[in-house]
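[Help] Beginner question about ligand-bound structures

Sorry if this is basic. My supervisor gave me a protein sequence and a SMILES string for zinc ion and asked me to "get the holo structure". I don't really know what that means in practice or what format the answer should be in. Inputs are pasted below exactly as I got them.
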Amino acid sequence: MPEDASRLTGGCLCGAVSIEITGPAHVTANCHCLSCQKLSGTGHAFHLMFAEDTVAINGETKGYSWTADSGNEVTTHFCPNCGAPLFGRSSGYPGSITVRAAALDDSSGFSPQVSVYAKRLQNWDATAEGTPAFPEMPPAG
Ligand SMILES: [Zn+2]
Ligand SMILES: [Zn+2]
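Answer (accepted):
No worries, everyone starts somewhere. Holo just means with the ligand present. The predicted complex, written as structure tokens, is below.
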């Protein structure tokens, strides 16, 4: 049976946590902020933002909250067993959940709409080619 194209699956490295997504991503962004660098262990994170009610998380995650460069209260969730970063929530985007692209089994259908916090770009990393890059967040509106 062919998979429903709108259904995405994913999870952590060890398999203790799985993710199922049944709705479209409404924002896709590479974030080069220092928090995303710390959390990813590399130059940026590729975030896919979905409506919260289209994302099901199975398994126990651990959350860590802090105030991001944007001023928003952000909570990131990771697997307490293998440490894989999985998803997050931000006070700036109520009702949305941001899933790490790398947490998906197949993220090949996504490309970033924007690169944000490009001012934090490391000389060993690069913004996505042909993607608008903003020093911080894009201007509102
Ligand atoms: Zn795990
Ligand atoms: Zn970031």
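A couple of things worth pointing out: The chain has a mean pLDDT of 93. The chain has one domain: 8-118. Feel free to follow up in the thread.
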